[in-house]
Amino acid sequence: xxxxxxxxxxxxxxxxxxxxxxxxxxxxxxxxxxxxxxxxxxxxxxxxxxxxxxxxxxxxxxxxxxxxxxxxxxxxxxxxxxxxxxxxxxxxxxxxxxxxxxxxxxxxxxxxxxxxxxxxxxxxxxxxxxxxxxxxxxxxxxxxxxxxxxxxxxxxxxxxxxxxxxxxxxxxxxxxxxxxxxxxxxxxxxxxxxxxxxxxxxxx
Length: 204
Fold this sequence. Notes:
The protein is built from eight helices and seven strands. The protein is α/β, with parallel strands linked by helices. The chain has a single domain, classed as Glutaredoxin. A seven-stranded mixed β-sheet has the order 2-1-5-4-3-6-7, with helices on both faces. The protein starts with 9 loop residues before the first strand and ends with a helix.
C-alpha cells in the first residue's frame, strides 16, 4: 500500500508530524485495509456522514471498544476550501486518522484514479492497492462496523491474533486486576520463603 504514497507526504491528525519516508509509510499502512475518505467539513452530506464514519472507525480501533485495534487505517482527502477549514474538521475526528496535506496536488490524482466525482466517498483498498469497494458510504451507513469483516476477508490480511511474546505481555498487563494479582503472587512467594526459613531454624 505504501507504493500508492511513494514520494508523497501524509500528515498525522492534529499534529505537525509528517509521515513521509517509505519505512514510516510501510509501518503505518502494511497489512491493513485502507480507507480513503473524500469529504469536506462544509458539505451538508459530509456533515451528516462524518460523525457516523468517526464512530465506525472508533468502534474498530479505539481501546475503549476493542481489546486490539482492527487492521484499518484511514486517510482524509479533503475538499475543504481553506487549510483552516480542513484543520477545524480534523480536530473533530479521531487522532489516528491521517490526511493529505492541504493544497497537495496528489488529492486530485487520487480523485481521478478512483473516479471520485462527489463527496462523501469512501474508497476501500487492499494492502496492495486493489479496490475492494469503490464507494462504501452506503455500506457503512447500512451495516456499520460489521462490514469490516467482509473487507478483511477480501483483503486476505495476515491474522494478527498470533501475538508475539512481547505483545502478549503488554496485552496481559492491560487487565485491571493484573497488578494486584502480580503483587499477591510476590507476597505469597515471600511468605513461603519466610516460612521455610523459620522451619529450617526450628529443626534440630
